[in-house]
Amino acid sequence: MHPLGSVFLQTFCSLLQQKDFRQLELSRLLTRLAHRVAFRFRASGAAFRGKKEMPCLVSRMTREAFPFAEPGSSPQAH
């Protein structure tokens, strides 16, 4: 990963490159994204001492959304 890039966005793009993750419902995908960022990355530098900024996922959606699923595929609804 590029050292100056956003860890969140780079991880999001890497998840979307994997077919299994593209089939997930949006809130599940974002939860897995937050988990991966939380457990694979740590801030560097003496001022941060390993602290992180994490997204707060809030949704008012009333239906499942599969924005990255391939047309004609059966998404993993749960």
TrEMBL record:
It comes from the Eukaryota. Residues 5-69 form the Caspase family p10 domain. One of its GO terms (biological process) is proteolysis. This is Caspase-3. InterPro entries: Caspase-like_dom_sf, Pept_C14_caspase, Pept_C14_p10. GO terms for molecular function: cysteine-type endopeptidase activity. SUPFAM superfamilies: Caspase-like. Pfam families: Peptidase_C14 (PF00656). Signal peptide: none annotated.
